[in-house]
Amino acid sequence: MELISVIVPVFEVEKYLRECIESILNQTYTNLEIILVDDGSPDKCGEICEEYAKTDNRIIVIHQENKGLSSARNRGLDIATGDYIGFVDSDDKIAPDMFEILLNNLKQYDADISICGFYRLYEDGRCIKEKQSVQGVRLLDRDEALLHLLEDKDMHSHVWNKLFKHDFWKDVRFPVGRNLEDVATTYLLFDNAEKIVTCDTPLYYYVQRPDSIIRTRNCRLEWDRFCAYRERLAYFGHRNEKYRNSMLYFISIFVPLGYNMYLRKKVKTDEDTSRMKEMRAFLIDLWPEIRKKKIATAKIRFEYWLIIRPAYDRFYRIYQSIKNKR
Question: Quick one: pLDDT at residue 257?
């Protein structure tokens, strides 16, 4: 039996950790190497990891100083010995047959990456299946899969509902110190794959925590998103017009929004000012192409966030200053 390495980064998830670990231990596919990376969690997560390691020799526990999700995943990748690599976030859980189905599909279709559907699990008990237009089991070539990924519709950048051949991670690691690390990574793996198999069966339970990074929008998150999109655009360049159109669409939505979040900060550091300049220069450079392609409502977004809103904010500050002097 082929060995699957399951990497679980652990930080401040004491409430969810036991259910997560048990969902992995109870997999119908049993030849697993379960790597729990305690990323300096200040609660009892480290103790819980050690507790489970004593009861199952498939578990390997690593303790490190807090360096973030990317570093924890990278540490797991560095020691993983499995033929295949899977990921589970420590506040989520998985269906009992998830890895069995992912591996069977991967082998049956001679694919490099296997993907399943997922549920969004809310704190109030709601469990909602993520919508997919790709129905059943489907085999995609590199170009088809990349287009789905870049359009962020049927294939999201999350690594946790996917199974990868180990060799694909030989030269790929998550960017340390950044949010949206999957967005900055998964497209590289897809670009190296010849075939990708996907099934719409939801086998992963993605817990929607109100305090999670992705649900708390802030300047840092938008900067990391900008960096990921800029890297994607630079990587693909003009290789495929459809890829480029998809990337320009998301750039036209999120980068002006991120720029405005920095613009409206009451107190700006030198780093904030530098980032604003980079975002603005990047958008101005791409604007003729975005406008020419008439991507979504890009013109309205661009002119509002980069011209109208800054002008309004500046006028309002001047008005308030004059008013206060009276």
Answer: 82
Per-residue pLDDT, averaged over 277-282, amounts to 92
Residues 62 and 53: beta-carbon distance below 8 Å: no
Average pLDDT across the chain, whole number: 88
* pLDDT interval class at 237 (50, 70, 90): confident
Q: What is the pLDDT of residues 58-77, one digit of tens each?
A: 999 999 999 999 999 999 99
How many other CB atoms are there within 10 angstroms of residue 212's CB atom? 11
Structure tokens at 197: 């198999």
Residue with tokens 């995609």: 140
pLDDT in tens, 4-39: 999 999 999 999 999 999 999 999 999 999 999 999
Tell me the whole-structure pTM to 2 decimals.
Answer: 0.88
Q: What is the 3-state secondary structure (H, E, C) of the chain?
A: CCCEEEEEEECCCHHHHHHHHHHHHCCCCCCEEEEEEEECCCCCHHHHHHHHHCCCCCEEEEEECCCCHHHHHHHHHHHCCCCEEEECCCCCEECCCHHHHHHHHHHHCCCCEEEEEEEEEECCCCEEECCCCCCCEEEEEHHHHHHHHHHCCCCCCCCCCEEEEHHHHCCCCCCCCCCCCCCCCHHHHHHHCCEEEEEEEEEEEEEECCCCHHHCCCHHHHHHHHHHHHHHHHHHCCCCHHHHHHHHHHHHHHHHHHHHHHHCCCCCCHHHHHHHHHHHHHHHHHHHHHHHHCCCCHHHHHHHHHHHHHHHHHHHHHHHHHHHHC
